[in-house]
């Protein structure tokens, strides 16, 4: 009797094991930045009187977003430094000069994530390498996952993120009038991305 039961259990186990097919892990989804609805902004302390803000108008970027495991996600972006805009043409010309961004010699700045960790239901920290003026330094940004949903008109899937952080321009060799235009530089990115 016990032998019959033993064979029965073994048969059931064998059937289940042969019938089981392990599920393949879902790959991260790739998103491209929706440029008209993405802003890359910066601001600096101007002599203690006020903050001067600006933004970059030309950039490219992609996001590999693994919603189930954000640590498997990644971000990369390239920004054209000559596209900066602070709303004042004379100042913008100076910012593009060798005193600051030296846009002619260094036409782009790049960011590539190296680590993304989840800190809350919709928050995380993203560390990556920022290359500016030929110098590469690690930067950490606080990221908020705003929303993912189909667009009501074209039905494409969009995902929105906000990222904030600070860098010291002196770390990249940008030291002109550092006493007046003080570190740190505050960064804010409002990113809307569309699933490819």
Describe this structure in words.
The chain is mostly beta strands and 196 residues long. The chain has a single domain (27-195), classed as Lipid/polyisoprenoid-binding, YceI-like (Lipocalin). 13% of the residues lie in helices and 51% in strands. It has two helices and eleven strands; from the N terminus they run H-E-E-E-E-E-E-H-E-E-E-E-E. The chain has helices at residues 2-19, 89-95; strands at 29-33, 39-46, 50-56, 59-65, 74-80, 84-85, 108-118, 123-132, 135-150, 157-167, 181-195. The chain has an eight-stranded antiparallel beta barrel. It is globular and about 50 Å long. Mean pLDDT is 90; it is low at 1-23.
Briefly characterize the structure.
By secondary structure, the protein is mainly beta. It is built from two helices and eleven strands, in the order H-E-E-E-E-E-E-H-E-E-E-E-E. The protein has an eight-stranded antiparallel β-barrel.
């Amino acid at each position: 009797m016990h032998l019959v039961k033993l064979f029965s259990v073994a048969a059931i186990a064998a059937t289940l094991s042969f019938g089981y097919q392990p599920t393949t892990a879902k790959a991260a989804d790739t998103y491209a930045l929706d440029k008209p609805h993405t802003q890359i902004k910066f601001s600096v302390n101007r002599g203690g009187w006020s903050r001067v803000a600006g933004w970059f108008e030309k950039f490219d970027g992609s996001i590999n977003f693994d919603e189930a495991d954000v640590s498997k996600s990644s971000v990369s972006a390239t920004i054209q430094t000559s596209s900066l805009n602070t709303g004042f043409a004379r100042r913008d010309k100076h910012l593009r000069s060798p005193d600051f961004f030296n846009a002619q010699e260094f036409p782009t700045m790049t960011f590539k994530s190296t680590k993304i960790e989840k800190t809350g239901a919709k928050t995380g920290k993203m560390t990556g390498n920022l290359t500016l003026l030929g110098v590469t330094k690690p930067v950490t940004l606080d990221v908020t996952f705003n929303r993912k949903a189909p667009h009501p008109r074209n039905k494409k899937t969009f995902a929105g993120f906000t990222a904030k952080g600070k860098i010291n321009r002196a770390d990249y060799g940008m030291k002109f009038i550092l006493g007046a235009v003080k570190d740190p530089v505050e960064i804010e990115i409002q990113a809307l991305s569309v699933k490819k």
